[in-house]
Amino acid sequence: STLPAVAEELLREIKKAFQETSQVPDDLLLGLKFIFGPSAVPALDLVDQRSVTRVRSPSGMTLYQVLGSSGKLYTCYSSCHFCTCPAFGFSVLQKSESLLCKHILAVYLSQAMGACQELAVSEEQLTNILLAEEEDEG
């Protein structure tokens, strides 16, 4: 699944602007708020706090962990726009009120702004992260 074209284009524009000026212009911030609604400002806060970590294994598997404002760590999969937080399950999947939760939006924004922390893990460590998520849900 992919984001709507307008959202993809906005993220591209943010990346381009950030590469050129190291900041996001006001018009793009307004676009962010317009498209992503109430997730936009909290997502930007998460990026500012450097709460997004790209976790990569030797085989090249990648996932993201976002330290939420509550202090809980959420696992996000940018390839399929999925987050393990309750807001994603409720607002995005059940109600279709939002495109994304603030955690996934923070992942996209931190990618655009080069603000991801990096963590290299073994295949076994990655498996443990994935299994820990399943235990939390079950």
Automatic annotation (TrEMBL):
Domain SWIM-type, residue spans: 74-112
GO BP, one annotated term: double-strand break repair via homologous recombination
Any Gene Ontology CC annotation: Shu complex
One GO MF term attached to the UniProt entry: zinc ion binding
Keywords (A to Z) from UniProt: Metal-binding, Zinc, Zinc-finger
UniProt source species: Certhia brachydactyla (short-toed tree-creeper)
Superkingdom assignment: Eukaryota
Pfam families tied to this protein: SWIM (PF04434)
Signal peptide range in chain numbering: none
Protein name (database record): ZSWM7 protein
